[in-house]
Amino acid sequence: LVTTISHYCSKLKVLNISGVSAIDDSSLAYIALEFLDISETQVSNVSLAILGNNVGTLRELYLDDCKNIGNEELTCLYPMTKLECLSLQHNHSITQYGIIQLVTRVPSLRRLNVSLCSQLSDVSVMKAKSLNTSLDIEYHFK
């Protein structure tokens, strides 16, 4: 699906395929977007590594409620030098360590949503915010 879209829509900047279960790792290698919503999909660290290495134009990425996303997968986002907005809502494997590393390694990040990430706390969010004072972090635990 994504491969076909990217082939026929080479100037596409925004793609929302949240909830689409037929996303495979290789299909993400051919996109050049500024906005990508792949929430509620089965993306893996392979998918994110492909994105991290190939999508230098990506500014907004939504990975809400992706069951396979944890600290290790976040490391794949480090090469995204233009990433400004990242949403990780409802991902229960992300910890304070993962968020701290992310904030440190992706200095372009300006907005981060970690609402409903059960492994995080107010302290986690405050610590991340202290490392990047220009970062707006949204966090709701309920």
- Percentage of residues in helical conformation: 25-40%
- SS-based class: alpha/beta
Beta-strand level of the residues, as a percent range? 5-15%
The count of DSSP E runs of length 2 or more, i.e. the number of strands, is 6
> What do the pLDDT scores average to?
87
For the biggest β-sheet, the strand order reads 1-2-3-4-5-6
Cα shape: globular
Q: Can you write the helix and strand succession as a string?
A: HEEHEHEHEHE
What's the short version?
This protein is α/β, with parallel strands linked by helices. It has five helices and six strands, in the order H-E-E-H-E-H-E-H-E-H-E.
Commentary on this structure:
The longest helix has 10 residues. Helix 4 runs parallel beside helix 5. The protein has 142 residues and is an alpha/beta fold. The protein is 29% helix and 13% strand. A 6-stranded parallel sheet has the order 1-2-3-4-5-6, with helices on one face. The mean pLDDT is 87.
How is this fold's topology laid out?
Blueprint: H1 2-8, E1 14-16, E2 35-37, H2 45-54, E3 60-62, H3 71-74, E4 85-87, H4 96-105, E5 111-113, H5 122-131, E6 136-138
Helix pairs in contact: 4-5
Descriptive terms for the model:
6 strands; globular; alpha/beta; 142 residues
